[in-house]
């Protein structure tokens, strides 16, 4: 599962008030199919893309890089190490991306919609 990549894409999409992933693709100057491949785990978000998405979604770019690197590792031990680094980094670990996503939803969306989406971000 590419949990952090999807959360990062969703946070950026929400911050830009976008409705479709093809709008993200336009900003990244990639084909729309590339975003779909990122969401399905067939292709990873590059470091440069992660920084761009994070900076424009109000997420710490270093935390986004940590999340994307954790996503890239199939080895559970290495993934756990990336997550441990993230926890040391900000005390919340990679949940910071989920919290940022939930915070954006709370700020932008309607209250009932925000609560539902925030729960999806944190639990998803």
Any descriptors?
124 residues; mainly alpha; 75% helix; globular
| Helix count from the secondary structure assignment | 8
For the sheet with most strands, the description reads: none
| Average pLDDT, all residues | 76
Counting helices, strands and paired strands, the structural category is mainly alpha
Low-confidence stretches: 99-124
The protein's oligomeric status is single chain
| H/E element order | HHHHHHHH
Strand content: under 5%
Please compute the radius of gyration using only Cα atoms. Answer: 14 Å
User: How helix-rich are the residues, as a percent range?
Assistant: over 70%
The count of β-strands is 0
**Overall geometric form:** globular
Spatial separation of the terminal alpha carbons = 10 Å
Describe the fold and architecture.
With 124 residues, this protein is mainly α. The chain contains eight helices and no strands. The chain has helices spanning 3-15, 21-28, 32-40, 47-55, 61-72, 76-90, 95-108, 111-123. Helix 1 (3-15) runs antiparallel to helix 5 (61-72), helix 1 runs parallel beside helix 7 (95-108) and helix 2 (21-28) crosses helix 3.
